[in-house]
Amino acid sequence: MSNIIKNFKLFVNENEKAKMTALSVQRVLEDAHLKYVDSNYDLAIAIGGDGSFLRMVRENDFDENIYYVGINTGTLGFLQELKLEDLDLLIQNLKEDTYKSVSLGIQETKVQSEKENRYFKSLNEIVIRNSHLDTCHFDVQIDERLLEHYAGDGMLISTSVGSTAYNLSFGGSIVFDDFHTLQLTPIAPLNSKVYSSLRNSLIIPENKTVTILPKNRENDFLITVDGCNYIFSNVKRVDTVVNQKRIQLLRFSNQFVDKVFEKFLK
Fold first, then answer.
1. Catalytic residue among 38, 42, 50, 258, which?
2. What torsion, rounded to 10 degrees, do the Cα atoms 220, 222, 225, 226 define?
3. Which of 92, 185, 198, 218 is the most exposed place for a label (fewest CB within 10 A)?
4. Rounded distance, CA 121 to CA 107, Å?
5. Does pLDDT of 131 surpass 80?
6. Is residue 50 flagged as an active site residue?
């Protein structure tokens, strides 16, 4: 068995299929002499869909010292590397120390409002909208340099990992997940004689900070972080960046191109 991975914990969706799968997974892994524990584990396994994977990573506070993997019992499951029938592959790779991992860049966001500063980490994206879902008006800066005076329904700022999630629904680009980028994807931007906003997504390299500055009094935001909604009043600014924070995802035979074909085109 692996010299590094000796114990594991399961993070299971609440539906019956995921629960039944979890029983099988636990039995197979324990038969292979891995130990199920509730703390100080080397391997975290999400069973369900991509939402289960996001919850698992969030519950572990994006711990860089854990290996993460997902077993898909949902629908799309782009983050879920394995199916139940792939358990033998997982066991073989752990026994022979032949598994590989890829580092996924983590988005770190600071929301500064009149009353407080809040900090968030996300694997997929943040979405910034007006709290009443009215038209947003804000300036967008990259490393303190003005990019645009934005007007529209909102702005989605995704990681490379999140490029295949909500970002794709708004016409954003797919980015290989071993790049560590941010992608600005406008949501229904306004373009007229009065307003001029970027219509297409913009991909930004790591270590460059994107800043959202509300204009006038339109500073009450609904900010969605990996599917979790937060409402903020009197927002002064939002800063988001992919720096050096990483998590380790176990990767097996699936190549990124194969996953794109299988999940979206097959």
1. 50
2. -170
3. 92
4. 6
5. yes
6. yes
